Amino acid sequence: MSPALPPAFVSRMRAQLGEEADAYFAAMEMPCLRGLRLNPQKPVSGAALEAVGGVEEPVPWYPALGRYLRNDSPAGTDPLHEAGAYYLQEPSAMAPVSVLSPRPGECVLDLCAAPGGKSATLAQYMENKGTLVSCDAAQNRLTLVGGALERLGVACGRGLHNDAAVYNEAFAGADAVLCDVPCSGLGVLAKK
């Protein structure tokens, strides 16, 4: 186990996880998985994607558009990223939307939307048809959502500065809700 982990954190996790704690700490020692999600609205050729570098096999729960990246991949520093041909996203972050599986024409809420990756994935599942309301309690983080949706060509989405715990009329009639509450930041411990 990494000596960088605070002892209080290690104690708390051991108490919470019991016999599964060792597996948890072993997983934190493993290399992080990187990924990207292709944007079907801005398709690229296989050769162009190869030029990005380090693009590997499909992500099993999103095989049509999710790809693993090698950790040394320069993806994200190229014009295709800036043009919205793909979005950098950890493979695990693609899973919630694949489980929710919204359909075209639905009204879908993303209640803790920043920085916008899952909102963009929701729009992909919706084929950019219907209504996507992306909420965040922090206005500065909602700006990130708007930037991501614009770069990726999401036309069915709109941002809403709203705390998810406070009802808003925009929530009425929703067909599906994604609420990936602000993260604990524990994944950052594994990365750093």
> Order of strands side by side in the largest beta sheet?
2-3-1-4
Whole-number mean pLDDT = 90
Distance, first to last CA: 13 Å
The rounded Rg comes to: 18 Å
Shape, principal axes of CA atoms: globular
Percent of residues in β-strands: 15-25%
Task: Name its key features.
4-stranded antiparallel beta sheet, alpha/beta, 192 residues, 4-stranded parallel beta sheet, single chain
Explain briefly what this protein structure is.
This protein has 192 residues and is an alpha/beta fold. It is 36% helix and 18% strand. The mean pLDDT is 90.
SSE inventory with pairings:
Elements: H1 7-17, H2 21-29, E1 34-38, H3 46-52, E2 55-58, E3 66-69, H4 79-82, E4 86-88, H5 91-100, E5 107-110, H6 117-125, E6 131-136, H7 139-151, E7 157-161, E8 176-178, H8 186-191
Parallel strand pairs: 5-6, 5-8, 6-7
Antiparallel strand pairs: 1-3, 1-4, 2-3
Structural features, described:
With 192 residues, the protein is of the alpha/beta class. The protein has eight helices and eight strands, in the order ααβαββαβαβαβαββα. It has helices at 7-17, 21-29, 46-52, 79-82, 91-100, 117-125, 139-151, 186-191; strands at residues 34-38, 55-58, 66-69, 86-88, 107-110, 131-136, 157-161, 176-178. Strand 2 (55-58) and strand 3 form a beta hairpin. It starts with 6 loop residues before the first helix and ends with a helix. The model has no long low-confidence stretch (mean pLDDT 90).
